[in-house]
Amino acid sequence: MAIAKFGRLAKRSYKSYGFCVKLTAVVILGLCFVFVWSVFSPSKFSVTSQRETFDDFAEPVSANGRVTDSGVHFNKNELKNGKESSSEKKGQILEEKDKKRVKGSPPLKSGNMHKDQKNVPKGKKQGDKSTRHTKQAGEQKIPEKERSESDDLQEEKQDEDVNGSEEDTENGEANFNEGEGVQGDTDLANALDLDEEGVEKVEDDSGDSTNSKKNKKKKLGPLFDPKAHYSWKLCSTRSKHNYIPCIDIESSSGKLQSYRHHERSCPKTSVLCLVPLPLDGYGTPVKWPESKVKLQILYKNVAHPKLAAFVKSQNWVVEAGEYLALPENQSALKGGIQHYLESIEEMVPDIEWGNNIRVVLDVGCTDSSFVASLLEKNVLALTLGLKDDLVDLAQLALERGFPAVVSPLATRRLPFPSGVFDALHCSECSISWHSNGGRLLLEMNRILRPGGYFILSSKHDSIEIEEAMSKLTASICWNILADKSDEVSDIDVKIYQKPESNDIYKLRRKKVPPLCKENENPDAAWYASIKNCLHSIPSSVEERGTEWPEGWPKRLETFPDWINNREKLIAESEHWKAIVNNSYLTGMGIDWSSIRNVMDMKAINGGFAAALSQQKVWVMNVVPVHAPDTLPIIYERGLIGIYHDWCESFGSYPRSYDLLHADHLFSRLKNRCKHPIVIVVEMDRIVRPGGWAIIRDKVEILDPLEGILRSLHWEIRLTFGKDREGILCAQKTGWRP
């Protein structure tokens, strides 16, 4: 048995060994055949031969005719025969997507405007990350006001110029018309050399500098269509030449009794019409400081439906021929404004006009004498015109050259940060502060600096109003510093002070109104409702509002601990001083003696306004709502400003400003507006005839912008370009269609 078993095992081993021998022999013979074939066969049949030409492989061409690198190329015949590998299948999918992207699309001409961000620019490279913004199945559309700053950057990355319009300006020369541009000006060249000097790098809304963008070689697409032709028409509204979109009711129907909205409400369609001039035309305003000394205003410039009746009922303003005259030492307050200001300082000695009190909000405009007198004391007082259906005198203040804005005050917050005003003033402003649970007074508490003052003057109120006001101010822990009846002016003056710490809030018996939640942002002010709560007062040294700013003018160049990058702010201020002194004041051809009201349409830290502090001008610093919130820094420096979205109309009367300054406004906000041209139309509305605009931006934006301004009959005074950056200086005429 054992011998038989051993025999069977030996037989199996022999069979297995024989199979291995046979397999080895086959492999060896095969290798020999391959070797012999490769040595003796012609080269065209060689497995290792290479192609001598790739002419029969066509590279994909973008919509603009430019050859793009699409990565791996594939043989379509092999794909049809089903011989593609897994990698070839992926390549086929990419190729088909590329076809869909450019199929049926004409070449994108230089300067065409991207009208809708949902449309992907033609001529993109295959696999470009920006294609993820195309509207595909399952993609959700982001509302305009809810898009974050990171979305802005992503959208800017997808706006590449596929026609090389920027490549044409790589030598640093702008494409402006000959005879109108000024080339080779040293000061203007220095004004454009921001990155080379390392002093200031123009920041975008995310805080990144353009230098980092240059490293990425990002190309922005055209904003305005240079081949477009514009035909303008006049606005037909009830307010006529005083029309303020978003505030005035546009309908001309006689059924509506009110002229104005109770809250800011913009038209559903973009306002692309031009506000007409006054019926009798617009005359050159009385220059500053003559408008302050002579106290005269051209009547036709401020014509108002109810102004004539109002003037007849007042003694502080009279008609004098073609002018409205404001007699010296006359004001809405008896005894004069100087007596009024001196009495306030006597009641509260801690109030030192022009020293610790620099920024004031005057709620409700009367004769603007309060603002004018404070200006002589180095106090920058901003008038808030409430824009009711009665006579609004904010336009008179602007015409005289004083700061003023127009805004409703009802249920929404004012467009200011929290805790920025040194003092608030209300004189006969006809506001029921105690109504609706004291909601409006809570808004005053929000924007008032900790330890700041609320000055309320009015004629003798009823006992009920006095008691309600006393109860309300006690509930928010305002300390009443003075309550005096002035015999000369025949008014009651009350001065309250906001607490400087949270300790007093804890001592309240009734926690009404309650403290706001920790996640409630006190600086959220654009279309934000007034909250019926008290915001906690900052307590940490690193927080804004724990310390009172330095006295003026030291305050302008002093940066507290809560401000980061103080060295950067100092460098920015020095840079703007050089630009203003070496270029703006001398190289633009502007008569600065006629400039009083100035607006910085895209202020960052107030460097431009600080550079003009020695001039006889005031600057409205506008911080776009989608940009980093730097407005508190501007107020901390003793300057004034406001939040705004430039896709909407600004809260001011037409013909309010002598000069507009726009530093990279268009290139930063072009993804925010459906029709970017509305910004140009708004600029035309708020600038006086004869007023100026200084625009610094990319050359490919300034070139078509020049054409738009010409269509509005603006006179182009200067154009200059260097290294893709440019400056355009234009002057508005009195033309209307």
Number of helices in the DSSP assignment: 21
Assign the structural class, choosing from mainly alpha, mainly beta, alpha/beta, alpha+beta, or little secondary structure. alpha/beta
At the fourth level of CATH, the homologous superfamily of the domain at 551-732 is Vaccinia Virus protein VP39
Estimate the mean pLDDT confidence: 76
Largest sheet: 7 strands, mixed
Strand content: 5-15%
Regarding CATH, which class of the domain at 551-732? Answer: Alpha Beta
- Straight-line N-to-C gap: 123 Å
Which CATH architecture of the domain at 551-732 would you pick?
Answer: 3-Layer(aba) Sandwich
| Fraction of residues in H or I helices | 25-40%
Net shape? globular
Strand order of the largest sheet: 6-5-4-7-8-10-9
Organism: Coffea canephora (Robusta coffee)
Membrane topology: Single-pass membrane protein; Single-pass type II membrane protein
EC number: 2.1.1.-
Keywords: Glycoprotein, Membrane, Methyltransferase, Signal-anchor, Transferase, Transmembrane, Transmembrane helix
Structural write-up:
- It is a single chain.
- With about 725 residues, this protein is an alpha/beta fold.
- Among the domains are: about 275-330, no CATH class; about 330-505, Vaccinia Virus protein VP39 (Rossmann fold), CATH 3.40.50.150; about 550-730, Vaccinia Virus protein VP39 (Rossmann fold, 3-Layer(aba) Sandwich).
- The chain is about 30% helix and about 15% strand.
- It has a seven-stranded mixed β-sheet.
- Strand 16 (about 715-720) and strand 17 form a beta hairpin.
- Residues about 45-185 and about 195-215 have low confidence and may be disordered.
